[in-house]
Amino acid sequence: MSEWFLILLLPVAAWSGWYVAIRRESKDARLLQSRNAYFESLTYLLNDQTDQAVDAFLNFSAIDKQTFSNQLALGTLFRKRGELDRALLIHKQLGKIFDLEEKQRNTVNFELAEDFLAAGMYLQAQEIFENLIFTNLEANQKSQINQALIRIYERTAQWQNAIDLFNKNSQELGKLNLAHYYCEMAEIFRKNNELTAAKTALSHAIVADGSLIRNYWIAAEIALENGEFISSIHNYQSIAERNAAFLPEIIQPMLACYQKIEREEEFFDWIFRQEEQHKNIRLTLALSDILEQNSRKNEARDLIHNRLQTSNNPLLLNKFLQYQSDLPQNALIISLANKIRPRTSYQCLECGFLLQKMIWHCPACYAWSSFIPTLEIKIQHR
Ligand SMILES: [Zn+2]
Fold it and tell me: What are the contacts of 323-332 at 24+ separation with CB within 8 A?
C-alpha cells in the first residue's frame, strides 16, 4: 500500500520541482532585467540624458538590495543638484513599492521629507518627519530629523512646537535658540495684549539664555508701555551691560523713562560715562543729537570736540562743522557738511545680509543674533 502511495506521489514531486525551478528562473530573470535597467539608466545619466535616466530607473521591474540603494542615492543626488522634481519623483516611486522592509521604508520617507524640505514644502515635510520620529530609527537619523523639524518650526513660526521639541531633546539640541523661541512667543503675546503671558515667556527666555539682550529689550519696552519706568530703566541697563554696541538704539527711550521720573541729570551722568568708556562713534553722534534736542547744544559741541582729539572719524568732523554755523565765512563748508549724514545699518555676521532695521533672525541664512550695527556715511544729493 505504501509503495503504491509513493509511486502516486512521484508526479507531484516532479511538478513541484519544475514549479520551484520556474519560479527561481523567473526571479532571476526579473533581477537580471532590473540590473540591465539600472545600467541602462546609468548610461543615460552619464550621457546627461536625465529624462531618459529617470524613466529607466522608474521602470525597474524588481527591486533588490543593490538597485534600491542606487535609486535612493540617485534621488538624493538630484536633490543636491537642486533638481527637486526629479528627486521627489524617484523617492515617491520608491515609496510605492509595497514589500519594502521597515528600515527601507523609513529611509525612503526620510529622503522624501528632505526633498519636500528643500522644495520649501514645509507642511508635507513636517508630517513625514513627525511620523518618522515614532519609528525604529538609528540615532543619527533621529538627530537629523530633530534638526530638520527645528528648521521647519522656525521657518513657519511654530514657536511652541520648537520649544516642545527642544524640551524633549534638550541634551541633544542644547539651548542655543530656545531663548529666541520664548522671545518670539513673548512678542506674539505682547501684540495680543496678553502681558502676563508675555512676561512668563520672557522669564523662560532668561532662564534659557540670560546673556541674550533681546530678553531685556522686550521687557524694557513692555515696562515703558505700561508706565513701569524704573523697571524699564533696569532692563535697558541690562542691555548696556551685555552689549554696549546697542547703546545708541536705547538711549532715547531710556531718557524718556528718566524724564518721566524727573531724574534726567542722572541719565546724562550715566550716558556720559558710557560714552567715555566705550568711545563708540555711533554713541557719540547719538548722544550729541540727544543733547541738541534737549537744548544742550554747547555740551554736544564740547562732546564732539573732545572726541575729535582721539578720533579722526569724518562723521565727527562733519558734525563739528555743523556746530560752526554761526561763522558766516564757513557757509560753503556748512552747506556741504549738512549733506553728509551718519546712517546705521544692520549686517548679518554669518552671510553679510544688510538691513536698515535691527532683526534677530536672518531671513537669508536663518542665523540667530547674527546682526550687528554698522555706521555708514550717507550723502544727501538734495
Ligand atoms: Zn545671515
Answer: 323/297
